[in-house]
Prior knowledge:
Blueprint: E1 2-7, E2 16-20, E3 26-29, E4 57-59, H1 65-68, H2 71-76, E5 82-86, H3 87-117, H4 130-137, E6 140-143, E7 148-152, E8 155-161, E9 169-175, E10 183-187, E11 210-214, H5 225-242, E12 246-250, H6 256-269, E13 278-281, H7 283-293, H8 301-309, E14 319-322, H9 325-330, E15 338-342, H10 352-359, E16 366-369, H11 378-383, E17 388-391, E18 394-397, E19 401-404, H12 414-421, E20 431-435, H13 439-451, E21 457-458, E22 465-467
Helix pairs in contact: 3-4, 3-7
Amino acid sequence: MKIQFCGAAQTVTGSCHLLTLYDGYKILLDCGLYQGRDEEFEDFNANWIFDPSEIDCLILSHAHIDHSGRIPKLVKDGFKGEIICTSATRDLSAVMLIDSAKIQENDAYYTNKRRKKKGLKPDAKPLYTHEDAYDALQGFVGIGYEKWHKIRSDVWVQFRDSGHIFGSASVTLKITQKGKPPVYFGFSGDIGRPDRPILKDPVPMENLDYLICESTYGGKKHNQLPDDVEDLLAIIQETCVDNKGKLIIPAFSVGRTQEIVHTLDKLETEGRLPKIPVFVDSPMAVNATEVFRLHPECFDSDILEYMIDDPNPFRFNDLKYIRKTEDSKKLNYLDGPAIIISASGMMTGGRIIHHLINHIEDPNNTILIVGFCAPHTLGAKIRRGDKKVRIFGVERKVKAKVKIMDSYSAHGDQNEMLEYLSNLDRSKLKNIFLVHGDIDRQEKFSDGLKGEGFNGIEIPKLGDKFELGTES
């Protein structure tokens, strides 16, 4: 067998890995969009380092766009196989890929307007359209956790809940050859965190021969949940009560938004949340939240128990979900304190950009960053403390306070990832390939793995190929 790394290699976006079996059968693990403005990856989304028409099957770990976002283009460019994922991932992907297509179309539209003003030919085209997204969704096959699903007579796949977002999964492939023991090939997807609200804890994989493993927070340690609630409450008190300002929270529409809303819901139920209007300003977040409610199999026992008294853990009296553009624009002229949760989490697009333009220069406001921001994104610049940033080509001074709560991250930290992998038999596991991490994080995580007795650790570059030693 051979593995080629076609994305998320020494970077954190664009997850895509190609496994070629002994007879040439090709399985693609994820097909994500590169998010960010790194010049090195400028053409990544538009081009392939393989032929899409030669891929036999796609296995999707979860619905985040950096793992799923190029699927419509893959289908458009010739892929005709099944897209196998969990049932919750299938439903979330329907929301997210259509939204992604609309973003591609809007980006092309506004690019062409700018080109026309400059006297240039308006020839920008979207990466894919909403029609392409609809076509791609026809190929999705949703299956349950813990079941072995036959891809073909000698290849089986099993999903286990990885606790990252709704429907997220680790992937284990069982590959058989006549007269030989089965080969177990694993892909961690994104590893979630234990003891988080809403989601079940990550379920470890069984023993493997080979593993592709994420490494986003190698060398890092998050705060624990009890600090989350009190820290968030303190930020709300300072910003909205003491300073009469607005708390702007850029958050991913899937996962992070629902977790923050549920935290606010619990605070409101306990009578501890100040009486402040809260807005979730993201049509996709609204749609995703509805999908969440349809999949109780993904909820942990705590939220199921909570729902006995509060059937809707994502809604309370002062919370308003916003779909319409005109209602979103009204928030720019809102008097008094408020909490505004909006996408995208990395601040690369979406309605959050408009809220930043209108609120970033007011020292009474706070921008609360609750997740990872890839290098070269607007979020990364604000996160690292830049005093000035450009938004829609206009320079803005960062006068609002900037707070960071990595404890809300959906990715496990170094200790949590090591604990997740701790059950694996070191003598059986031949190689661990580290992906989905910047090189400094990967090197730290590699050192941590070696300290736990793991060997054969590789940090592949984009396009690297490895022989896995199972050919007959």
